[in-house]
Amino acid sequence: MPEKSQRLELATQMRERGLGFSGVAANLWGEKLINTDDQSKYIFEFQRNSDFARDLGILTVRVDCVQPPTIHREVDYKTAFDRVVRTWRTCCDIAAANGQLVTWEFEPGFAFNKPSDIVRVYDAVDKPNFGLLYDTCHGQMVGVNGARQEGAKEVFPTQIDFLRSLSGRINHVHLIDSDNTCHKAADGNDETSAHPPFGAGVLDFDAIVPELMKAARLPDDWWAIDLCFYPDAWAVTEVCKEAHQHTQQEVRLKERRRCKTFASALSAAVSWAAPIPTPTCGSTISFRLSTGRCCRPFAGATAGALKRSPAHGVRAGRNRLAAVD
What is the pTM (predicted TM-score) of this model? Predict the structure, then answer.
């Protein structure tokens, strides 16, 4: 959609159908951030993505450090840190002008993947529209396993402890299981956290979700189910939806405890799960939790390629490759 008129038309069509987008993953992976002192191309591309999102009514822009943690072997810590912070401060100003938030998805596959790094970068950016994207599988691999950390590992005993260290800094959420492994790159080495569907991992969502709600400062009621590298997101979406249908009434009756109820719904999905193949690609599926009504499921393989569910009304979704969250 190169023309603004096309984007505005899509935004209108989405609104007419009761649809929306939870965010956009800015397509910055072709740019350099840490190993150059000139971040003008990165910033230019961020501006383009932010403007694109603005035209579609998208209020959250996702970023990451672009380059792998091995970049720390080439660039000294202070230089790398200053480049990231300076650039993201500029990006936050761009996003603010478009009425948007910026959310950093930290993960094993990118630089600054130690818990203290995450807090330090967040605090240094120090912009009111900047926050952390907490993905429960990345929380496990970064905060508990120390996956792909350069030098000495820095970990917590549990995700609960990690979450408490991030209190007040989280502004977007991805929920998915973890089996304490990383997805493998083409060369067989660890790339980033594996994203197994609910029930195929080890996470205790009954314990994690309440702590996540305490630690987060979410500006909206969007949640996302991240199935990155998973080959058949639609099949798992159906599993989650069917499990949710069995808990609707309970959620309505216990709306004040909706986080706990939602975690129970995810646990219930285990009994519906089909055999799970090895993840190779995938999608992010968004859910919305709203006070006074049940959690509404969302699903999608590509941005806008959604249809309304007769029972619930699908709200938004994106394919990882489409870069729409």
Answer: 0.79
